[in-house]
Amino acid sequence: QVQLVESGGGLVQAGGSLRLSCAVSGRTVSMYPMGWFRQAPGKEREFVASIRWSGSFTDYVGSVKGRFTISRDNAKNTVYLQMNSLKPEDTAVYYCASKKSVSSSTYDFWGQGTQVTVSS
Predict the structure, then answer these.
(1) What separation, in Å, do the N-terminal and C-terminal C-alpha atoms of the chain show?
(2) Please, where are the H alpha helices in 1-120?
(3) What's the rounded Cα separation, in Å, for the pair 54 and 109?
(4) How far apart, in Å, are the Cα atoms of 97 and each of 12, 38, 39, 48, 71?
(5) pLDDT, tens digit, 9 for 90 and up, residues 73-98
(6) DSSP-derived 3-state class of residue 80
(7) What phi, psi does 63 have (nearest 5°)?
(8) Rg of the Cα trace of the chain?
């Protein structure tokens, strides 16, 4: 059974930093594409960042480029999202997700989410 458990969310002032963690069980993070998504109140869920299963290729939505960094620790089977220079518009529930396979076009496994609130 695949489980993704996010942690690290909280309340932070604008300009501050948070590091989100996604502990994965039931699969190896180094073998599948992993991603972070977020959903703000009244808005659709949006892609934030992803990391390819092989190597360290990463991708980001434009609004977080240069501020957020996705990474993984294969030994801990955990994926991270380091968020710096946070802005009030980053406020959302953040979700970790994994694709079922390398060739999958969708993310098939999701965590329960962790709330990030950035105050101005």
Answers:
(1) 40
(2) none
(3) 19
(4) 24, 11, 13, 11, 13
(5) 999 999 999 999 999 999 999 999 99
(6) strand
(7) -70, -15
(8) 13
